[in-house]
Amino acid sequence: xxxxxxxxxxxxxxxxxxxxxxxxxxxxxxxxxxxxxxxxxxxxxxxxxxxxxxxxxxxxxxxxxxxxxxxxxxxxxxxxxxxxxxxxxxxxxxxxxxxxxxxxxxxxxxxxxxxxxxxxxxxxxxxxxxxxxxxxxxxxxxxxxxxxxxxxxxxxxxxxxxxxxxxxxxxxxxxxxxxxxxxxxxxxxxxxxxxxxxxxxxxxxxxxxxxxxxxxxxxxxxxxxxxxxxxxx
Length: 233
Known about the structure:
This protein is mainly β. The chain has one helix at about 1-25; strands at about 30-40, 45-55, 60-75, 80-95, 100-115, 120-135, 145-155, 165-175, 180-195, 200-210, 220-230.
């Protein structure tokens, strides 16, 4: 157990060094994303989940947003899975004339496909998401922000090694009303997780996000993400 925890600590500090190096080389922001969640399996094919998140920006010193997400996943056929969730967001606006906490609502629909090849697990996910500010109409300037996303992820199961590596890549395309339909950013994530028997699962990710639209700030976002999840079967 001590050896496994030591390995987990070494991986964590390794991610921090990678992030610090990238930030030093390019003008970008450093974020911190933290989440805690619980999954509840009702039937073999149906799972409910509840999650709370806090995210920080401006070198991880200023709250960016906090949100509660409620969702469900249903296995429809062999390797195919449908999912959906709603997100209640408190977003901290630090720019413009209306600064402060502004409430938003987001819903999202997912279609996933997963398969294994020996010890390599591969998953693909297509997501549609739609976000708007609560109690603000389109006439008042709130145009729902709609995006489609495609993500491919892989992880490899090493024998007798508790910290299996995970990697995924994701591309975003904006499909909002009255806006230019275009790819807006991509995201690369490298991480691992540790399953602690009867106590849940801890995860850590290093995430790099790059804007594809000139003039957006930040153009580059480096994120250290910490996760905890508990499953009830």
